[in-house]
Design goal:
Mean pLDDT: 93
Distance between the termini: 9 Å
Structural class: mainly alpha
Low-confidence stretches: none
Radius of gyration: 13 Å
Oligomer: single chain
Strand content: under 5%
Shape: elongated
């Protein structure tokens, strides 16, 4: 994977993180959903690190 593709994927993860992090999760279900989204971002970031 070349540096441009890695940079692009990292920028996408950054954008997703910002969007999820700015969500207001009031109910337990919303908090659970937000947690799942953050875990998915974490897994994607770990996969991206493997390519470095």
């Amino acid at each position: 994977m070349d540096i441009e593709k890695l940079t692009s994927k990292l920028n996408q993860l950054n954008t997703r993180f910002d969007e999820v992090n700015s969500m207001v999760a009031v109910t337990p279900e919303e908090q659970w959903r937000k947690g799942l989204m953050l875990q998915k971002i974490d897994r994607d970031l770990k996969k991206l690190r493997e390519h470095l």
